């Protein structure tokens, strides 16, 4: 079965979407990533969409779902590398991807993940921390 | 009333499964590149085609897309017609509203793709299927 590879680097999972995904493939990625997060106890997920020529409402929703599921499993998600034409189209379509953290490139995306994960670990001993943001 | 013109060429792409929606996107990309639309316009048209193609599949149970090169005076445009033989849309005005969904989507497909195109028309009869036609002029 066709799959999008998920790379593991320490506490992080990295995904580069390089194919024009049909809907089922996007759902498979969503399931695979969610499973991998819990398997390897990942703290951060980086999804590189710089090769994607379009993001429609389905792919946008899948990305939002991944971010939401990751958050429930105590992992942060950052989506990086969106092409400008894709960003313009998404906003006109009516999707501003609320709840998804984005960064311009892989480097700043990783930086964000490291900082966020480090600050979470720092507050780990605060038992009963039920802050929601 | 939708602006139209002389049809110079056409192509039909069947839509029967989710891989066909990928083919729809690819064919529209080829057409818009050949017609020399800007990258942003190409992205808008391909995204609209993806939304409408998915509607044809999910709500209409499959169908087809017809692409046409439309010439109206000095203007050239791409016309995309998505047809299915599904249950039809009972309330078109409601279906066009953002956030309205009959399935499990975000409800941005119809209204969103209308915003991405210049002309947009829905013909639907209960039980008789739906045809959504959209044009983007260059």
Structure notes:
The complex is a heterodimer of chains A (133) and B (138). Chain A is of the alpha/beta class and 133 residues long. Chain A has a single domain (6-103), classed as STAS domain (Transcription Regulator spoIIAA). Helices cover 46% and strands 17% of the residues of chain A. Chain A has 4 helices and 5 strands; from the N terminus they run ββαβαβαβα. Chain A has a 5-stranded mixed sheet with strand order 1-2-3-4-5, sandwiched between helices. In chain A, α1 (23-40) packs parallel to α2 (57-72). The longest helix of chain A is centred in the N-terminal third of the chain and has 18 residues, at 23-40. The model of chain B has no long low-confidence stretch (mean pLDDT 92). Chain B has one domain (6-137): Heat Shock Protein 90. Chain B has 138 residues and is of the alpha+beta class. Chain B has 4 helices and 5 strands; from the N terminus they run βααββααββ. Chain B has a 5-stranded antiparallel sheet, with helices on one face. In chain B, α2 (39-58) packs antiparallel against α4. The chains are: A alpha/beta (133), B alpha+beta (138).
């Amino acid at each position: 079965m066709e799959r999008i590879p998920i790379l593991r680097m320490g506490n992080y999972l990295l995904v580069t979407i390089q194919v024009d995904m049909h809907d089922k493939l996007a759902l498979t990625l969503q399931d695979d990533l969610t499973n991998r997060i819990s398997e390897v106890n990942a703290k951060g997920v980086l999804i590189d969409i710089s090769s994607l020529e379009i993001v429609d409402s389905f792919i946008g929703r899948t990305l939002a779902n991944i971010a939401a599921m990751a958050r429930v499993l105590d992992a942060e998600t950052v989506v990086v590398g969106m092409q400008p034409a894709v960003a313009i189209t998404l906003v006109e379509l009516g999707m501003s991807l609320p709840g998804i953290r984005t960064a311009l490139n892989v480097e700043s995306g990783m930086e964000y993940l490291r900082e966020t994960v480090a600050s979470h670990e720092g507050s780990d001993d605060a038992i009963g921390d039920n802050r929601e943001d | 009333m939708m602006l139209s013109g002389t049809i110079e060429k056409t192509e039909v792409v069947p839509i029967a499964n989710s891989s066909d929606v990928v083919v729809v996107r690819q064919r529209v990309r080829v057409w818009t590149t050949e017609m020399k639309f800007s990258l942003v316009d190409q992205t808008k048209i391909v995204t609209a085609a993806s939304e409408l193609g998915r509607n044809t599949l999910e709500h209409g149970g499959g169908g087809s897309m017809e692409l046409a090169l439309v010439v109206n005076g000095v203007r050239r445009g791409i016309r995309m017609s998505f047809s299915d033989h599904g249950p039809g849309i009972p309330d078109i005005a409601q279906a066009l509203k953002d956030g309205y969904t009959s399935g499990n989507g975000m409800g941005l497909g119809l209204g969103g793709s209308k915003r991405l195109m210049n002309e947009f028309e829905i013909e639907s009869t209960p039980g008789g299927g739906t045809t959504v036609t959209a044009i983007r002029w260059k």
